Predict the 3D structure of the following.
Amino acid sequence: MSVRTSSPASRRAQADGLQAGDDVSSPALRRATAPASSAPRRSRPDRRKAVEIAVLVGPALVIFLGFVIFPVVMAGYYGFFRWKGYGPPTDFIGLQNYVTIFQDPTFQEALWHNVVIVVMSLLLQGPIALLLALLLNRPMRGQSLIRVLIFVPYVIAEVVVGTGWSLMLQTDGALNGLLEKVGLGAFAQDWLSNPDLAIWTLLGIITWKYIGFAVILFLAGLQGIPQELTEAAQIDGASYWQIQRRITLPLLGPTLRIWAFLSIIGSLQLFDLVYIIWGQYIASTAGTSTMATYMVANGRNAGNYGYGNAVAVVLFLISLVVALVYQRFVLRRDTAGALTERSEG
Amino acid sequence: MTASTIAIPRARRPRNGRLPWGSPAIYFGALVVVALMLAPILYIIIGGFRTNAQITADPSGMPSPWVTKNYAGVLSSTTFWGEVANSTVAAVVTTVGVVALGLMASYVLARYQFKARGLLYAVFAAGLMFPMTVAITPLYIVVRNLGLMNSLAGIILPQIAFALPTTIIILVPFLRAIPDEIEEAASIDGASRLGFFWRMVVPLALPGVITVGILAFIASWNSYILPLFILNDEASFTLPLGVQAFASQYSVDTAKVLAFTSLSMIPALIFFSIFERRIVGGLTGAVKG
């Protein structure tokens, strides 16, 4: 028994290029010549197993509950108070914070900006990323290098991206300079502070930063489509675009739906880029504020921690509702399989 | 849901021989896209080699002559190196913590049979619903009550906590894919379950471990909102806060800001170019899983 099972084990370990083969297979083979001694079976298996589980999961669970779940629960509690953040909250005001949030036109604007960002991110990034993925999926030399280069903006810190773009987009910055140089000076704009334009500038930067992620996902999805299908369609006389439209796109559905989900949630939570480029005060006058920048500006920066926590709860509930609705109506088919597979294990 | 979901997307190659050259139109399209993606980054790096007078005279021009005093100035400042050290410590400790705790928890979730297992997995997976932005205000209060303000521990612990859901979701399928026969064999050879964990599971899960480690490292290196809340003292700043502070402090010295900014992204770029396949493959696996 042990000879048979240990040698595939070592082979697999070696095939994976790991050192484990040395540690495990040779003692295993040595012992296999001796009569199989009954390994010390657990005398009190349940108790021992429970201890092992506690030791292994405990640290992760404590940190996770303490720094993720507990703060979120506390936000729900603090949100009912007028509280400056010092000492225990005592000034209970019920739902007053929530009433204020929804009556504040600044919040309504921020919410609207989030809606625009969610919708436009999908409409801008989806088609462009799909075209790029189709382009890069054709076998050609240098494609792995091109993929990496497209992915670079995704890896760079938001602070770097924000600082670089805000310098480039100033009225006397590099973009306007470039436009003048090529004779398009008439198109030079106040990209960052013109309230009609600023949100489009933001969308452009978002597209630039995050499209690499979409392309990589779509490429992975395209790799999963069996080549036989497209070959069969080719033999039947289908054109390239017919194949993409009738075969590739439907089969890419699960990937597209997952990407859209991640994009929506990310757009609802958008904070870093806006806060870095527009700062806490200009964001609302330039028309780029988001719920998250509103939360930071009116919570922590204003010293109103009760209010800030209430905004956090609103932001969370909106994200949660969107996520649940999306999963219920869009992702349902895709996740059903994954979940059953997972529980069967 | 096997380890193969982590496979790196690659083009199908002809059985023997190299990839064909694509058509010129496709290369042209790809070239335009790559240029658009890299131009802003090159603007930052090259701008650091210019003087402010050059930048004012021609904001989109090339350096003439190339000057190195901006980069030299940043590289000789203790502030910059202090921030590099803070970012490095935070990223390394976060990565080690996430990998260690995530691997231990995933091992239990993947290979132990017990009643609360499904619930435990659901609790961790629910963490995906709580991005750090949502939790930042109360998180700040928790960290402050623990007395961890202005200390790297104050950002490391929350970063570990928020990285655990992704880590566990990536690692559990990996660990589950290890055949039971290996465990039986190890057990017959006298290895305890914990011995099996150290001797077999850790090496076999190495590809997944590297993936989650890289994701945690880059997330920590780039992290902005958490340090913004927790670190108020300049001595404790990480690089993202440092870049921002530098940009507002020297707002008239554009060239120096560009030099500082481009130096701060170098470590992430190096890290990315070394592990590019793993990152790209890991993201694919994470989403598919």
